[in-house]
Amino acid sequence: MKNWFMNKKVLVPVDFSEESMKAVDDAIEMADTNELVHVVHVAPDLDVTTPGVVWESISEDVQREHVLKTFAKTFASPKYDGVSYHVAFGDAGRGIVKHAEQIDADVIVMPSHGRAGFRRLLLGSVAERVLRLAHLPVLVLRH
């Protein structure tokens, strides 16, 4: 049976939860090569009234550096060699779709955190937002 993911550029958004780490592992298993796997973390925009921003101790550059260090530590195993890591800022759903367009991804692979009922109503669903906004296939994993 042919692998649908053969020669496909795969984008995996991560929030460093256990589910998103499993999605990265699943994407690596599906892809032909790690070089086709791209991991992105979309950090929220910094509020100009946040004390760290006001005192100039926190900036997007500092936040980006922190996320890149976390990527390096989290994905230090040789099984992640060749994977590309990216940091974006803004709304998670929109940021994921925008990044997918920027890298010309063929598919987005992401977890569903399984929120339901009132929690989902309050928090919204990043996976649902990505599904609504994306103009490419989205594989939502349920673990």
User: What's the SSE pattern?
Assistant: EHEHHEHEHHE
Q: Using only CA atoms, what is the Rg?
A: 16 Å
Number of helices: 6
The CATH C-level name is Alpha Beta
Number of domains: 1
User: Ends: how far apart?
Assistant: 24 Å
Trace the largest sheet across and list its strands.
3-2-1-4-5
* Poorly predicted regions: none
Q: What are the SSEs and their pairings?
A:
Elements: E1 10-13, H1 18-30, E2 37-43, H2 51-54, H3 60-74, E3 84-89, H4 92-102, E4 107-111, H5 117-123, H6 126-133, E5 138-141
Parallel strand pairs: 1-2, 1-4, 2-3, 4-5
Short description:
With 143 residues, this protein is α/β, with parallel strands linked by helices.
Description:
The protein has 143 residues and is an alpha/beta fold. It has a single domain, classed as Rossmann fold. It is built from 6 helices and 5 strands, in the order E-H-E-H-H-E-H-E-H-H-E. The chain has a 5-stranded parallel beta sheet, sandwiched between helices.
Throw out a few tags for this protein.
143 residues, alpha/beta, Rossmann fold, five-stranded parallel beta sheet, 6 helices, globular
